[in-house]
Fold this protein.
Amino acid sequence: MPLGTLDSTPPPFFRQGPSALSKLIFFSTLAVLLMVADARFHVTQPLRALIATALYPLQWVALRPVVWTQSSSQYFETLNTSQTKEAAAQYKLGLQSQRALQVEQLTLENLRLRALLDMRERINTPALAAQVLYDAADPYTQKVIIDKGSLAAVQLGAPVLDEAGILGQVTRVYPSVSEVTLVTDHNQAIPVLNVRTGVRALAFGDAASYSGTLELRFIDANVDMVAGDLLTTSGVDGVYPPGLPVARVLKIERRADSAFARITCAPVAGVTGSLHVLVLHPLTEKILPRPEANVVTTKKGSKP
């Protein structure tokens, strides 16, 4: 039997249905129709909602590791950021506090300098501005070191005052620095005048207590003096200009077994906190020398 006469069609048992091209055309048309129907009439919206509702628990469970990872990384990032911001804020707060203290200190120093300039304008004596460097090393004396010496024409015995009143007296002069003995030192004495009554006295540093006070000695027990009286320089010593504040009376002790009163005074100058001072020229240069006594010479045997 010739080969060309054989039937090449498959038997009915092996039939595959419609062809692939027919399936492509059919399903493409169906897809287009469904898209048009969904866009126009929303026919698949309930089906979508049902499927989304059914799949939401699975999606929630599947996303938990991702959410936890993101939350933990965000927590640590936020913690590090917060710690960095807190450290920066603490640093800025420290700077602001330091600046506030500096401003307060500069304001106080400015006020003291203004008061010192006002004091200088009221004094007719030449004055030299100086700065306190440090306290003397001897704990049993009350002395300070200033930054002006003989090179700046500082003289031995020159009065030293701050913006409030008399601070002390120059007792040693070096080329670049000078030593100032404070009025509260036990070896220091200064003539004073009670402004209210005009009583003159001599104020000594209180050597008994080292409390930074002065003591008026050899004052009659019945003297007219009360607590709060202002004592100024009397000017009788030829060193201190008259009228400069020295101290205020703190207390008066009158004892029956003594003819003298014990009067304690507090210095008006900042003996423990002055930084800027004025060094005055001593008034001894302005005092005229004492006239020499006229000596009458007589010959031997003659009457004067």
